[in-house]
């Protein structure tokens, strides 16, 4: 099995990535590998509003797995079977994400490029396959979701204006949406006084969470190694 493409996202490290797809409006680009840059393969794709991404969880391919995992949704303290979770620590490290399709460009300098919204993938993640989302068969409104049957309560996010101005306007809402999901580990206490940080595109976002509020306390440009 070989990757057909790679995705470009604002997340260059695991910490900070939304735990599910569709929780932010952040755009991402899917750039195809040379072998799969035939624009005919994308004919008709733009007629769909959403697509499925099947991807390789490359950062977690250790060759080892555990039959039970501790989902962050349960505070990292309760064990569930790996097949009853979406943990990346799996026998076969394969992920699936449903994302909104924004644009299909058949001819660019990089070959065909797809732009999507709401991806929960690390920058550079290999894409194994792309399939259209079919509403009549892929949606089950009466489905049961166990401990993940409903969306988590979002944090109120405080992003001071003087800090928001440090990043492009089109990414500001996506940053707020990311922080509202509380990217901290599941074991973190609600009133944890620690300061946390994660990489977001070209910036290092520093924040803290107190109760139901996540506050951005600093935004710094990401360090670029000297060549």
Q: What is the gist of this entry?
A:
The protein is 9% helix and 31% strand.
Detailed description of the structure:
By secondary structure, this protein is mainly beta. The protein has two domains: 5-138, Beta Barrel (Elongation Factor Tu (Ef-tu), domain 3), CATH 2.40.30; 156-221, YaeB-like fold (2-Layer Sandwich), CATH 3.30.2310.20. Helix content is 9%, strand content 31%. The protein has three helices and twelve strands, in the order ββββββββαβααβββ. The strands form three sheets. The chain has a six-stranded antiparallel beta barrel with strand order 1-2-7-6-3-8. The protein has a four-stranded mixed β-sheet with strand order 9-12-11-10, covered by helices on one side. 24% of the residues are buried.
- The percent range for helix content is under 10%
CATH architecture of the largest domain: Beta Barrel
Instruction: Determine the structural class based on helices, strands and strand pairing.
Output: mainly beta
Highest-level CATH class of the largest domain: Mainly Beta
- Give me the CATH superfamily of the largest domain: YaeB-like
Number of strands: 12
* Biggest β-sheet description: 6 strands, antiparallel, barrel
Strand content: 25-35%
- Taken in chain order, the helices and strands follow as EEEEEEEEHEHHEEE
**In whole angstroms, how far apart are the ends?**
34 Å
């Amino acid at each position: 099995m070989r990757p057909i493409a790679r995705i470009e996202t604002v997340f260059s490290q695991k910490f900070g990535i939304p735990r599910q797809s569709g929780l932010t409006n952040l755009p991402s680009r899917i750039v195809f590998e040379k072998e799969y840059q035939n624009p005919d393969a994308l004919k008709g794709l733009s007629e769909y509003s959403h697509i499925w991404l099947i991807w390789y969880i490359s950062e977690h391919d250790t060759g080892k797995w555990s039959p039970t995992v501790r989902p962050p949704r349960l505070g990292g303290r309760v064990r569930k079977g790996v097949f009853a979770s979406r943990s990346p620590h799996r026998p076969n490290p394969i992920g699936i994400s449903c994302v909104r399709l924004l644009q299909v460009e058949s001819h660019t300098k990089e070959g065909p490029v797809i732009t999507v919204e709401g991806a929960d993938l690390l920058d550079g993640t290999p894409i194994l396959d792309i399939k259209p989302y079919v509403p009549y068969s892929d949606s089950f409104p009466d489905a049961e979701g166990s401990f993940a049957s409903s969306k988590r309560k979002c944090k109120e996010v405080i992003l001071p204006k003087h800090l928001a101005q440090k990043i492009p306007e089109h990414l500001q809402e996506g940053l707020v949406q990311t922080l509202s999901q509380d990217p901290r580990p599941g074991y973190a206490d609600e009133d944890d006084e620690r300061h946390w940080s994660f990489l977001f595109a070209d910036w290092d976002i520093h924040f803290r969470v107190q109760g139901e509020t996540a506050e951005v306390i600093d935004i710094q440009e990401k360090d670029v190694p000297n060549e």
